[in-house]
Amino acid sequence: MKTAVWFCTLLALAVAKHTIYFKEEFADGDDWTKRWVESTHKSDYGKFKLNAGKFYGDVEKDKGLQTSQDAHFYAQSAKFDKFSNKGKTLVIQFTVKHEQNIDCGGGYIKLFPSSLNQVMMHGESEYKIMFGPDICGPPTKKVHVIVNYKGKNVQINKDIRCKDDQYTHLYTLIVRPDNTYEVKIDNSKVESGSLEDDWDFLPPKKVKDPEAKKPEDWDERAKIDDPEDTKPEDWDKPENIPDPDAVKPEDWDEEMDGEWEPPVIQNPEYKGDWKPKQIDNPDYKGKWVHPEIDNPEYTEDPNLYACEDLGVIGLDLWQVKSGTIFDNFLITDDEKFAEEHGTETWGATKDAEKAMKEKQEEEERKKQEEEDKKRKEEGGDEPDEEEEDDDDEEDSDKAEKEEDEEDDDQEVAQKDEL
Asked: Which band of pLDDT confidence, cut at 50, 70 and 90, is reported for residue 198?
């Protein structure tokens, strides 16, 4: 009996080893509106609707918040119990589906402090972390990872490319207590490193020594002109010369045509500007490197990773073309649990979603072929308007050409008479 109780206790501890700060899968229909608050800071924010989209793996499981109005800002947020990730791993995860083939718009989330006034949330509201994809034309297809450090929003220094197709993708940010991080897309690592190295949170550890100066006799030239090399006496030749084979035309009239000059050709003996050959510089010392010293303004911060107050998740973004679906939100302290959750949600429906999309595209292709065939049959052998226009244009060009030839003949005849 004691063994069974002990086993159950261990099992309970194993299950409870992770903490879920926030989870949202929109499984209860329109009740999501009781948890998510729309900002009224502006009167024309775009509306979110619960929808699985035009194609999906599971019509119920794949329902999420979808942007529904083109060229609008969106501002919606949900509150959770305030927490700090001090001494713990922070994992932020959600799915994004740009089924509208987005041209310009955000697909990211923001984590705000618990003090946020949700009904007044807007683009300038202070946030702690901004994470997720952002697309605007070919130049911008990146994953934002912005962290607020001492009141300043600091963007990651690395360029992380986001997915730009129409399918659902899983985005994960992991921030660890050892000041390291990892970004995953579809449960696969795409970037990782050190918070201190990849963000400009702190001043540099080293700076150039202000007292150090390059010695005046420091020679950085690896090669120099050979002082013993001299230019050959026959080197200087003109680049262009009169064509020696040119002959003045017999009918050249200097009174009417001016003095005849032979055409100019490139001189085969031209060698270009002479330069002395190069030799190794005996005084070469290499490129001078400015000595560095410890930066007196640098102070290590072991708590770069820590956010003391997290309490609201928000969708604060702009989209030109609407249709993006956000789903499967998760904030936890366990990397493995987040990966498993991603597999159970996004992973469980992604293949069926792709199959449905491909089936729709195939049906659309066949439908288009049938319409083209029908239109061709109804048109018969009669030339279309475009072909008739081409024929008219050819006739017009031919007539203009004949008129030009007649004008040329008249000009020649007039010249002969003169």
From this structure: very high
From 378, 384, 381, 328, select the one nearest 353 (Cα to Cα): 328
Residue closest to 122 by CA, chosen among 189, 65, 45: 45
Q: Which two tokens stand for residue 177?
A: 């207590």
Angle between helix axes 335-344 and 346-379 (nearest 10 degrees) is 40
Cα 79 from Cα 127, distance rounded (Å): 13
Cβ atoms of 317 and 108 within 8 Å: the answer is yes
Distance CA 359, CA 365 (A): 10
The string of pLDDT tens digits covering residues 63-114 is 999 999 999 999 999 999 999 999 999 999 999 999 999 999 999 999 999 9
CA 130/CA 100 separation, integer angstroms: 23
Closest listed residue to residue 77, CA positions, set 42, 124, 114, 25: 114
Q: Are 294 and 67 in contact (CB under 8 A)?
A: no
Beta bridge pairs of residue 149: 152
**CB within 8 Å of 245: residues ≥ 6 apart:** none
- Residues 339-351 have pLDDT tens digits of 999 999 999 999 9
Q: pTM of the predicted model, to two decimals?
A: 0.76
